[in-house]
Amino acid sequence: GGETVQGVVIEDPYRGLEAKDSPGTRAWEQAQMAFTRSTLAQVPGRDDVKAKLAAFAKVDTREVPVVRGKRLFFLARRAEQQQPVLTMRESAEGADVALVDPNPKSEKHTISVVLLDVSADGTQLLYGLREGGEDETDVHLLDVATRQELPGGLPKGRYLGLALAPDKHTIWYARQEKIGGRIRTHQVGED
Length: 191
What we know:
Order of helices and strands: EEHHEEEEEEEEEEEE
Distance between the termini: 42 Å
Radius of gyration: 21 Å
Shape: flat
Low-confidence stretches: none
């Protein structure tokens, strides 16, 4: 069905797909994947192209770093890794130090890490973990020197932006909620 917006009927046959966990949505996704696989299976030389593309993808990658003091923070992926690792260097010439490696966190390597923010002095950082590329992120706070997670992360949600305040006791965040995007604060150490 459709809805009327300012007197105009707008048809949206895909509106039901917004309920991503509903049986109807799952069945639709499975049917689409089956159709896609059957269509791609008929492409001549597909296996050769797939092998060549896979070989090109097997390279080391490194994102542009976030610099705080002398420390550099970035995501890096070695050619043999499925997911990038949250990495740090103590200086531009320093060795790479893995801070958060999501690769062992799931058997199929479907968990990814994202760098969200780093304190101005480079001693604490906010990072997120996502399952399977979903929009929702679990937010964690890390003590960089000890490599220990600090209390004060945020529950899984669809965050639009996060920032660790200069006092390192407050997280500012924007999260998508049913009533729209809202900016809130969270005190580190609270549940």
